[in-house]
Write a structure and sequence with these properties.
The protein starts with 12 loop residues before the first helix and ends with a helix. The longest helix has 20 residues, at 265-284. The protein is 39% helix and 14% strand. Strand 2, helix 5 (118-130) and strand 3 form a beta-alpha-beta unit. A seven-stranded mixed beta sheet has the order 1-7-6-5-4-2-3, sandwiched between helices. Strands 8-9-12-11-10 form a five-stranded mixed beta sheet. It folds into two domains: 11-263, Aspartate Aminotransferase, domain 2 (3-Layer(aba) Sandwich), CATH 3.40.640; 265-398, Aspartate Aminotransferase, domain 1. It is of the alpha/beta class. It binds pyridoxal-5'-phosphate.
């Protein structure tokens, strides 16, 4: 296996997305190959011994540790993110869990923002405490709350920005500066912004996690996750132990699917944003809709910081509130002919969901309201269809 072309530091983002990490086998295939194998063979017993005691050259020994197709995905995403290292995982949640587990231990402390994806919230409020880790959630937009929570030492800070589904935007640099003074590693869930819009490492993040299931695949085909970082010591001493010995490995087939997803990521994200920007304005003008939350709208509560840290763009997701509450929200969903009711996001197909009764069903009502989720709220993941078809579908469903 040879690296045909060394990814040069001078390659721009689009070139890295298409060619970064490509390694060709002896067959000189054009597209990346799928190495759908679990193990590897050795020419001699001594070679096997040297591979295990670390004295031999670095090579693949078992696909739970590393695999050529997965390695190509990791290298391509690392190049795109501007990170030194990337480890792929089976899902976004295994990326979040392993990244946090590698930062803390019993007796440790983790501070997070309150507006989180449902399973991330579960890890912080339930799973980590079960292992003896103290956790605290704060309003991510409240600078005083961060200052207070980080006046005590912490192992990690976890935040999601923009958040799911209320699109709250957190000032990453502000939190990272405080977190580092408290001795914490900053883990940023960058799913909603994608590697195209937001570069958390430039703002002080130590670890970036992705659900590759979302925009990186972007076509509803497979699950995947990624952990990106620059601190090799943290990886070697902590993260790699979790990954090797608990085995949340990405399937080589999924890695191949996601490699192909990366090739078109920036084109798709641009198109998602074009449609979302137009729809956010369109929805704002509809009398049945009392509120539209979209970071690029001047009415967004953190509009200024959003534009500063998200390359001046709003992303592909919109939250909206129906004046008629849950009944109106359900009626809108049920009357859509084109847009699907689905809780996935970042897909080529436009998808709408009612967070109160689906993604955040398990969260107590009072907490949902604190997070800004109301019964009349819908989350819209804007797809790649023709914008006029999307507008017509929403208009018809609003006006039955
Ligand atoms: C979907 C999602 C996750 C979890 O990813 P999976 O691939 O579904 O495990 C984590 N964080 C955010 C913000 C998400 O949207």
């Amino acid at each position: 296996m040879t690296t045909e072309k060394k990814a040069s530091d001078t390659w721009r983002a689009a070139t890295r997305s298409v060619r970064g990490g490509t390694k060709r086998s002896g067959f000189n295939e054009t597209s990346e190959a799928i190495f759908m194998n679990s193990g590897y063979v050795y020419d001699t017993a001594a070679e096997a011994e040297a591979s295990f005691d670390g004295s031999g050259p670095e090579r693949f020994v078992y696909s739970r540790f590393a695999n050529p197709t997965v390695a190509m995905f990791e290298e391509r995403l690392a190049l795109l993110e501007g990170a030194q290292y990337c480890r792929a995982t089976a899902s976004g949640m295994s990326a979040v869990w392993n990244a946090l587990a590698a930062c803390t231990r019993a007796g440790g402390r983790v501070v997070g923002s309150r507006a989180l994806f449902g399973s991330c919230e579960f890890i912080l409020t339930t799973l980590l405490p079960r292992f003896g880790v103290e956790t605290e959630l704060v309003d991510g937009t409240d600078h005083d709350a961060w200052e207070k929570a980080l006046s005590k030492p912490a192992d990690a800070v976890f935040l999601e920005t923009p958040s799911n589904p209320t699109l709250e935007v957190i000032d990453i640099k502000f939190v990272a500066d405080l977190a580092h003074k408290a001795g914490a590693r900053v883990v940023v869930d960058n799913v909603f912004a994608t590697p195209i819009l937001q570069h958390p490492f430039e703002l002080g993040a130590d670890v970036v996690v992705y659900s590759a299931t979302k925009h990186i695949d972007g076509q509803g085909r497979c699950l995947g996750g990624a952990i990106l970082f620059n601190d090799k010591e943290w990886h070697d001493d902590h993260l790699t132990q979790f990954l090797r010995h608990t085995g949340p490995s990405m399937s080589p087939f999924n890695a191949w699917t996601l490699l192909k997803g990366l090739e078109t990521l920036s084109l798709r994200v641009d198109a998602h944003i074009r449609n979302a920007t137009e729809l956010a304005n369109f929805l704002s003008a509809q009398p049945q809709i009392s509120k539209v939350i979209y970071p690029a709208l001047a009415s967004h509560p953190q509009h200024e910081i959003a534009m500063k840290q998200m390359s001046g763009r709003g992303g592909g997701l919109i939250a909206l509130e129906l004046a008629g509450g849950k009944q109106a929200a359900f009626s809108l969903l049920d009357n859509l002919q084109l847009i699907d009711i689905s809780n996935n996001l970042g897909d080529a197909k436009s998808l709408a969901t009612h967070p109160w009764t689906t993604t955040h069903q398990r969260v107590p009502g009072e907490d949902k309201l604190t997070m800004g989720i109301t019964e009349g709220m819908l989350r819209l993941s804007v797809g790649l269809e023709d914008i006029d078809d999307l507008k017509e579908d929403l208009f018809a469903a609003l006006n039955v």
